[in-house]
Description:
The chain folds into two domains: 6-157, Chitinase A, domain 3, CATH 3.10.50.40; 166-326, Serine Threonine Protein Phosphatase 5, Tetratricopeptide repeat. 50% of the residues lie in helices and 14% in strands. The chain is built from eleven helices and seven strands. Strands 1, 2, 3, 4, 5, 6 and 7 form a seven-stranded antiparallel β-sheet that branches. Helix 10 runs antiparallel to helix 11 (298-326).
Amino acid sequence: MASEVSGVGKGIRKRVTTAGSGTLSDFRDGTKAIFHYRTVLCDQNRTVIDDSSEKGKPMELIIGKKFKLPVWETIIRTMKQGEVAEFLCDKSHVLEYPQVSRSLRRIAEGQDPREGQRHCCGGIAQLHDHSLGYPDLDELQKNPQLLIFIITLLQVQEPGSYRQDAWAMTDQEKMEAVPVLHQEGNQLYKQGKTNDAAAKYYEAIACLKSLQMKEQPGSPDWIALDLKITPLLLNYCQCKLLEGDYYQVLEHCSSILNKYSDNVKALFKRGRAHAAVWNASEAERDFSRAVSLDPSLAPLVAKEMKKLEERLHEKNLEDKIRFRNIFH
């Protein structure tokens, strides 16, 4: 049963449709709020602009991290876990919504939210002539209007009770998270959970990459971070080899070898990936280079080359039979 409308702040009206449970969190900085949102126009049809429940992934907001749409933090602070409420927000609170919505839509589509954005001064006004790639958001950007947010607060997680995503961490938190993620990845790999292990290694790499982006390429600090990234990337490639994702292995091992041409592990893994996709000469070249740098690998390389020769022989026989049948 809906409650009466109440004021949250200047230009924000709230109506609770489902009461929450427990006590209201103090939402101190670092608290994570996980919620579904539906964004609705104040027209006769209550036209839906966005609905996170349809995308299957709820929104995660870290209190105190200065999210681009401050009104969401304001309204979340008034809610209990499990509560569903509608918030009518004046135009002044939602001018940034088209930009935020664009980013969230692109993330849901598996795309880079920053791609295609134009960096310029002057705020929203100068963006009016720039398409966001979504006609409804372009219209909303050109003609700002009141919006209704229907929020379902799924969960409130206190600071320290969860691991933050890399983008939400401080530099210190990122550095502290890397060895933990590395160890978790190793444990999962030992258990045969290569996909989960790869995700841990990837998360650790993301932490280090975000730190590396702040350094001058080639500087001592940049190189120090790169030397931390390399073993994680090799572990990630090992997982991808076992999963059969050979082209990712080729790409990442090549990026390592472009910087560290004598990295034996990268040469061996790239050789295996080349062999798996029938690049026989490239595989032989990588294996040969790996053995010249580390002769102890000779037995392993011999085994890999024998497997490749057997597979090539089988493939040649299959091709001969196939071509013979074509001309019959």
